[in-house]
């Protein structure tokens, strides 16, 4: 009986070693725009136990990785204001284009794709051992006048134009 338990334990250990680990999973992304086009992006996510351990032992620095990734993708400096094991908040200056026509203004957000994030991660040596999901279950864009646009499990978010209510 003891040998059977040892054999089953070894088989389970080998199965866990060869199967890809579920990694980072994006849950919600909320982009809140200000009238001048700046944005606050709040991302809620889940980390695997291995990723949580890496953050805890300071093997990985999600704040620096997030900041570098966003700056490379957007081509402008960003500020990571907070990162926890389940969320991140980022300030993005001039995220939306602002156009003024008389007394009314419009904001136009750029399109962006989570597929590019996946492609960037695939360049790392550890990519074959993880299977992250960067596409949020819900992406919400909130304009200063309260107008809201939501996308559900959408890999590419299109450009959104909205004339602000006066």
Strand-helix topology:
Blueprint: H1 2-18, E1 21-33, E2 39-46, H2 49-56, H3 62-74, E3 79-83, E4 87-92, E5 97-101, E6 104-109, E7 112-113, H4 115-121, E8 130-133, E9 138-142, E10 148-152, E11 156-157, E12 160-163
Q: Specify the overall morphology.
A: elongated
Q: Any idea how many domains? A: 1
Low-confidence stretches: 3-21, 55-59
- The termini sit apart by 77 Å
- Radius of gyration (CA) equals 20 Å
Largest sheet: 7 strands, mixed
N-to-C SSE string, H for helix and E for strand: HEEHHEEEEEHEEEEE
- Roughly what fraction of the amino acids lie in strands? 35-45%
The tally of helices reads 4
What is the residue-mean pLDDT, rounded to a whole number?
75
According to DSSP, the number of beta strands is 12
Helical content (DSSP H or I, runs of 4+): 25-40%
- The SS-based structural class is alpha+beta
């Amino acid at each position: 009986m003891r040998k059977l338990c040892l054999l089953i334990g070894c088989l389970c250990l080998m199965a866990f070693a060869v199967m890809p680990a579920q990694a980072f999973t994006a849950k919600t992304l909320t982009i809140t725009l200000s009238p001048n086009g700046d944005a606050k992006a709040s991302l809620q996510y889940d980390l695997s136990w291995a990723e949580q351990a890496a953050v805890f032992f300071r093997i990985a620095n999600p704040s620096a990785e997030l900041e570098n990734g966003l700056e490379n993708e957007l081509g402008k400096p960003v500020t990571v204001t907070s990162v926890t094991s389940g969320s991140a908040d980022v300030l993005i200056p001039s995220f939306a284009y602002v156009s003024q026509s008389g007394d009314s203004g419009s904001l136009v957000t750029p399109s962006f794709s989570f597929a590019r994030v996946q492609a960037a991660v695939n360049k790392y040596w550890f990519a074959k051992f993880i299977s992250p999901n960067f596409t949020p279950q819900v992406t919400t864009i909130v304009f200063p006048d309260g107008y809201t646009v939501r996308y559900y499990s959408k890999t590419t978010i299109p450009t959104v134009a909205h004339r602000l209510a006066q």
